[in-house]
Amino acid sequence: MKHAAANSQDQEALKAVVTRFRLALExxxxxxxxxxxxxHGSCGDVCELxxxxxxxSGFGEWRYCSGQRDDSFxxxxxxxxxGLILDITADQFPDIxxxxxxxxxxxxxxxFSLHECRRAANLDHLLFQDFAADAEWTYRELYRRVSDRAGxx
Length: 153
Description:
Layout: H1 8-26, H2 43-56, E1 63-68, E2 75-81, E3 84-87, E4 101-103, E5 113-116, H3 132-148
Antiparallel strand pairs: 1-2, 1-5, 2-3, 3-4
Helix pairs in contact: 1-3
């Protein structure tokens, strides 16, 4: 198993594969309703999908973290492991323009009061929902797109 934060070369490999995952999401045409306006409003489900992808790709388990800003309307979710923050939906907020954040800098994420940051992010958390079939199909399609580089640079 790869260790996600072992060195800068590992981080570069991680960022490259996560960038392809993000691009696969941007292609759209996926049945999971929460992805209809990606990245807006999709951070929770995307974290579960990405968490499973990282496990299946040998990058290990990542923790699902979520929180809310002082204004209860703004919630957000991202992944963490070994002091690294991985966030592919932060650009839904106007103050972030990077599509993939892989950082140890907590400044931006610290504005969210944590609700949880303990459990592993994975597909299991979506498979107990009413939309389990859509979630499973979406994951298989994203995995295929990234693995085959289907329509990706």
